[in-house]
Structure formats: C-alpha cells, structure tokens
C-alpha cells in the first residue's frame, strides 16, 4: 500500500485534473487565437432576411406604425451611446478591432467599439449562475477538436430591427458560435466564426452567418468614449447634441 502522503497526493491530482485540462486543453490553438483581430468585411457574410413568424411580423408592423416614420439620422440608439446586444459586436463590419485573451477557465474579449467586454467561461461544470440579462449575454464554451464552441443565452432584448439590423428578440434567444483558425486566399491567418441564432419564439428557423476576422498584431484596441462625441456636439452647439427627437 502507498504511504498516506502519496495517496493524498494522488487524490488531489485526480481532483485537479479536470480543471487543469480545461485551462490547457488546447494551449497551442489558444495562443494562436489570442491577440487583436479586425473584421474582414469583404469575406464576411450578411444576414439573410429574417424568417419572422406571423406574430413577430405583426409586432414589427405595430412598432413601425406607432413610432414611425423612422429617421435613421436621429432614431439611432448607437448615436446615444447605447450598444446593441449580441450578435452586434461579433458581426460588426466596421473596422473596430477587438482583442482575445485566454486565461484559466475563461476567454475574455475586449472590443474597441463602446469599450465592450465579453466574458466566456470555460468551466467544465459552470453550475447555476443567476445574472441579469445583458448586451453580451451569458456565454459558456468548450472545445470540439480545434474549434471553440460558444453558446450564449440571457441576452438583453432589443427593438424590432430597422435601426439595429436585429429582429424582435425573445428571452429564448440563443446564439451558438463555432470559432476556428483558418487562412484567407492569400494564406494569412484569420478567425472564422460560424454563427447560428436560435429564437423559436420569433423565428421560423435558425439564422446562420459566417464572419471572418483578420489577424492584426500591429493594431492596438483603442479607447472608445462614446459620451465624448455627445459632449463635443454640445460644446460646438450642434442641434443634434441630444440625438433623440424632442
């Protein structure tokens, strides 16, 4: 029989093994995914027409009748520094960078736009967490081979879609992303994000889109103070200093 201290050591190693593996399951892939990326607008897809069910269509039409006509130069939540919910930050085509950081049991994504932060848990057993709905939602991930599969729920609901590009959303919205390393036609490193949006309360079928991001090691994620724009407009006497109709 092994000495007591060796038996205790073996038990401790066995208990720690799942957590060690979750953090270092794919260290080489994680290192390659870490760093700064830019949207590849030319290669990335666009959302198809949203397959809204009859009730969602009626809700969209009612919203348009009640709050229309829509003036995109004024009726834009972004102008008032209100960031849209996922999948906005991951399907952005404008050239705002984001940075991916892997730490034990977590992936953190820092977005330049709106200074957003996304926390993706890699816990093998996340347990039950009660959190408020948010723009980034609640994300958990696991590895399938060299692909990072991220599932996000608890996403804050947004408007009906003309300004944001998002359809009506329900509490059942769930986004699944399959993120992997690929090469563009020139052989440069890229990230591929195969995104599927599920919302059986609103959509007749899931919506899919594939995004690509360019490896950008020479770019830093900058400081984005959206409120500074509104303050500058106010100082300059701009009539749109408060960008909502009175």
Structural features:
single chain, 246 residues, alpha+beta, Lipocalin, 9-stranded mixed barrel, 26% strand, disordered C terminus
What report would you give on this structure?
The protein has 246 residues and is of the alpha+beta class. 22% of the residues lie in helices and 26% in strands. It has 4 helices and 9 strands, in the order ααβαββββββββα. The protein is globular. It starts with a helix and ends in a 10-residue tail after the last helix. The C terminus is likely disordered.
- The domain count comes to 1
Structural class call reads alpha+beta
Low-confidence stretches: 11-24, 241-246
Distance between the termini: 81 Å
How would you summarize this macromolecular structure in one to three sentences?
The chain has 246 residues and is α+β, with helices and mostly antiparallel strands. It has helices spanning 4-24, 27-33, 54-67, 226-236, and strands spanning 35-39, 98-103, 106-111, 117-121, 138-144, 147-153, 174-183, 189-198, 207-215.
What are the SSEs and their pairings?
Blueprint: H1 4-24, H2 27-33, E1 35-39, H3 54-67, E2 98-103, E3 106-111, E4 117-121, E5 138-144, E6 147-153, E7 174-183, E8 189-198, E9 207-215, H4 226-236
